Amino acid sequence: MQRAIRADRPPLSHAQQRMWFLHQLEPNSVAYHLLFVRRIRGELQVEALRRALEEVVHRHAPLRTVFPSPGGEPYQHVLPPSRWELGVEDRSALDDETRAREVERIVDEEASRPFDLATELPLRTRLLRLSAGEHVLFVTMNHIASDGSSMGVFWLELSALYARHCATGERPQLPLITFDYVDYAEWQRNRMQGEELERQLGFWRERLHGAPEETALPSKWPRPVVTSGRSRELTVELDAELSSGIRALARRQRATLFMTLLAALRGLLARYTGQADLVIGTPVVNRPRSELEGLIGLFVNTLVLRNDVRGEESFSALMTREKRLALTAYEHQETPFELIVDALGVERNLSRSPLFQVLYAHRTLEQVSELGPGLTVESCPGKTIAKFDITMTSVDKVGCIEVSWIYNEDLFEGWLIEQMARDYRELLRQVVQDPGQPLAYIQLVRDEDRRRLGDELHAARTASATDPMPALLEAQVVRTPDAIAVVFEGETLTYRELDARANRLAHHLVAQGASADEPIGVLLERSCDLVVALLAVWKAGAAYLPLDPHHPRDRLRQILEDSRARLIVTESRLAELVPAGTTEVAIDRDRDAISIRPATRPAARIAAEQLAYVIYTSGSTGRPKGVGVEHRSLASFVASMQRAPGITPTDTLVAVTTVSFDISGLELWLPLCVGAKVVVCT
């Protein structure tokens, strides 16, 4: 790399160009702020800190660069070095509680104050004095001038400069900067053109051709035209045993921790979206030359990792494919994300990020413990802005792996992310125990949770009789006929539509001999049809026998033999799993015959003491053992869960559990009894 011959108006790098473009679309946006808050304890020499900040700004041109755009074409205008001002805001006279609120106020203030990139430096600093031995330093940067790796350079140099200024008052000997960011921008633009650019883009065109435009996570609210960036962050620590198991699994697979956690995230997203084809973004440092390692600037690039999740394959197999995918993508990591978006012709808008909406980043443990002799430094919570629908980060800490979920509050409620975090941990726990099991076999409800809910359901069995479940659901149809009841991938059913389809199928089942004396098997993939079929069995006066098509064939055979079910609701492609001598209703094959049945409720009598469903556990001998649950027991259980933890018609509940477990009844019927929405996930 050579120093560039300086043009009068040096161009922006490709990443800077995108930041500038987004700024033009939304000048008051604060989505690309980098805010770092450090609490400094000890006897701080404020002038030494000011001089250290000044020297860092002098050394790194991006921190004193503005971006004028005469004629609409931006360029980098590097301002000459000047004195850096660091005012001290004294709050030492306040009590502890007020001082804490003042720190929070400044965090909010800094996070919400935009930069004017044409005239204002992309760096702000503030120092808050809480007492003689405690200060808080606020550093706010615009992403156009910095990235995560740059912050490591910033703190390293700031510490060295501060220590030297305190000791001697002289400037320390830091590594000489022979190339600056303007040189990099010129080098990148010269490199990414012609045949080399076409070679790089050809790879990404092939990888991303036909990729889904959106990751369809279940959101409570429609996507706004312009995202506000409002976000919350949930951080959880995986316990030491699980963390150790994950690391060991990665070693056995000869994969990195990043690849392992990425595979688990993709498996989780497949459950929550119902999509097999999933695209996840991940940042890479993107400093291909040694000359760039000690610079502050926007170098980070984003890789777009597309892979599919196959229910029949093992987690080990998915990990192998994730490893191969990541290594191949790393070979093409220099291709600017902005050029990939342009090459694919992806429409840009302010409601979502192009190509992907879920980002995963694995970070190294940040080491900021000292600023100088006698001072200790600790990170304080900043203000996180949602750049994507969900950002998951992981940090490999001493003794545990920490996982954080940053989510867009325009789309999601906190309970959903909490559930995702729990399910992610449970998925990891199961694949550590048995990485060879098919992904479709993984249950995201822990045994102790299942036992707890089972105990609550058992207690409900002794409760007083109440209306049977179909009556409760039909009452809700009257109250909110046009509200959305069930969602699966791109299909939705209103309460009116759900009721009508269930009634037609129920009439068809009665015509096939359905009765209260025998359970009716339901062997379907997860979909809206599954919910329709379960409800239809009730309306036909029978109890449903849920059968998971992903369970071993021998287990299904044993369950059907023991239950003596003679009638099964299924679909054509699963018919081979149905034993001879059983009457099958294939909802796809028989759709025309079902559609001409009446949309009104059948005349079947349903009593509260009748069985609602029969589920099979493994049993102490390993042979499946059936357990029946009455309508009044299920209704009492659902009613108790309405009261605590509670649910309202505006809520959305995600159904992720196989119907062969008790908790599936809670996930499906609780929201439908109150007018809420249930999202069926695979």
Overview of this protein structure:
Mean pLDDT is 88; it is low at 456-465. The chain folds into 3 domains: 14-183, 2-Layer Sandwich (Chloramphenicol Acetyltransferase), CATH 3.30.559.10; 207-441, Chloramphenicol Acetyltransferase (2-Layer Sandwich), CATH 3.30.559.30; 447-680, Rossmann fold (3-Layer(aba) Sandwich). It is an alpha/beta fold and 682 residues long. The protein is built from 19 helices and 23 strands. β14 (484-488) and β15 (491-494) form a beta hairpin.
Strand order of the largest sheet: 4-5-6-1-11
CA radius of gyration:
30 Å
CATH class of the largest domain: Alpha Beta
Overall, the morphology is: elongated
* Number of domain modules: 3
Estimate the helix proportion, in percent: 25-40%
Under the CATH scheme, the architecture of the largest domain is: 2-Layer Sandwich
The fourth-level CATH homologous superfamily of the largest domain is: Nonribosomal peptide synthetase, condensation domain
- In DSSP terms, counting alpha (H) and pi (I) runs of 4 or more, how many helices? 19
Sheet with the most strands, sense and barrel status: 5 strands, mixed
CATH fold naming of the largest domain = Chloramphenicol Acetyltransferase
Mean pLDDT: 88
Unreliably modeled segments: 456-465
